């Protein structure tokens, strides 16, 4: 990730974003976009374009090859900036803050957005999806949402994951306790910050209440047709008041033939954690049955 994404973001000019967009467009058709095509897409002549691309390269936003022809492709960071630019332009994002963490398949930043009606600024989470970083085979094996995809690129995988996550948050919020979705663009999702901290790192005083509340949220999601599919103490936030289930891109429809298996795994993860840390015991089969109603 960039050392300071907000500093890089602020320092880019309109023509830099045009350069990045030109390569993005070309990547639909080329692994390495020929420089002539970047020039054609951006309407920047090759002389000026040379400096634009060189600058973007120095900033770690794109990669250049010279053999067998001069061509360019974006790094994730270049794609991130295109998404940020779009989100800022349409008012979904006002500022980028510190990096909160690097997950398995994402990089997460704090941010701010302007609330409508001059109500001030609201802290938000900016989640940069990174799904295509692993090889396609690996991704395809573990990620049901890529089934049937012929033309693959990491851009496609990360963008699809962001869209899936945003869509399911919109579907579940507010009936299920998930972060309020704000907006998404390309591989980026903007959402509200979950209250409290990760269950894995928090010592709760009333573990029965938290376990019951988590299972109740899973039941509600199931009743709305959705199984999380990657639930564990790392994807559950807890505060004094509530639990919030995060990290949804791999969710499954309850009709999916693996939904039962993954629900059982989710329940198993949660129960194993409460048993290990708090000595609470519940039977997986029984709980799965309650969730499925
Ligand atoms: N809405 C949120 N509120 C607070 N923290 C979040 C939120 N979304 C993500 N995070 C933080 O970022 C980490 C990675 O995000 P997550 O959605 O779990 O993606 P990954 O697939 O990379 O695990 C989380 O473990 C959590 O610490
Ligand atoms: Mg996670």
Provide structural commentary.
The chain is 43% helix and 20% strand. It is an alpha+beta fold. A hairpin with a 4-residue loop joins strand 11 (236-238) and strand 12. The longest helix is centred in the last third of the chain and has 20 residues, at 259-278. The protein starts with a helix and ends with a helix. Adenosine-5'-diphosphate binds next to strand 4, strand 5 and strand 6.
How is this structure best summarized?
The protein has 293 residues and is of the alpha+beta class.
CATH top level assignment of the largest domain: Alpha Beta
Task: Examine the coordinates and then state which fold CATH places here, giving the name of the CATH topology of the largest domain.
Answer: Phosphorylase Kinase, domain 1
Number of domains: 3
Number of helices: 10
Low-confidence parts: 144-151
CATH architect. name of the largest domain: 2-Layer Sandwich
Bound molecules: adenosine-5'-diphosphate, magnesium ion
Average residue pLDDT: 91
Strand content: 15-25%
């Amino acid at each position: 990730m960039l050392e300071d994404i907000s500093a890089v973001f602020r320092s880019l000019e309109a023509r830099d974003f045009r350069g990045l967009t030109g390569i993005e467009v070309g990547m639909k058709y080329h692994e390495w976009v020929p420089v002539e095509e970047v020039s054609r897409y951006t309407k920047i002549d090759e002389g000026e374009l040379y400096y634009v691309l060189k600058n973007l390269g120095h900033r770690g936003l794109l990669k250049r090859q010279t053999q067998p022809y001069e061509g360019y492709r974006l790094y994730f960071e270049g794609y991130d900036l295109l998404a940020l630019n779009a989100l800022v332009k349409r008012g979904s994002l006002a500022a980028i803050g510190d990096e909160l963490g690097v997950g398995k398949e994402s990089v997460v930043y704090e941010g701010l957005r302007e609330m409508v009606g001059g109500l001030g600024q609201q802290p938000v989470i900016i989640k940069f999806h990174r799904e295509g970083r692993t090889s396609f085979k690996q991704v395809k094996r573990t990620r049901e949402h890529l089934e049937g995809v012929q033309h693959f690129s990491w851009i496609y995988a990360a963008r699809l994951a962001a869209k899936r996550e945003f869509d399911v948050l919109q579907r579940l919020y507010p009936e299920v306790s998930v972060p309020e979705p704000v907006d998404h663009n390309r591989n980026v999702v903007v959402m509200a910050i979950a209250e409290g901290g990760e269950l894995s790192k928090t010592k709760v005083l009333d573990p029965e209440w938290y376990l019951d509340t988590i299972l109740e949220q899973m039941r509600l999601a199931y009743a709305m047709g959705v199984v999380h599919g990657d639930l564990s103490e790392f994807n559950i936030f807890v505060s004094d008041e509530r639990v919030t289930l995060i990290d949804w891109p791999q969710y499954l429809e309850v009709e999916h033939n693996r939904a039962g298996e993954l629900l059982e795994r989710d329940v198993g993860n949660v129960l194993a954690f409460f048993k290990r840390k708090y000595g609470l015991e519940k039977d997986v089969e029984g709980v799965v049955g309650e969730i499925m109603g």
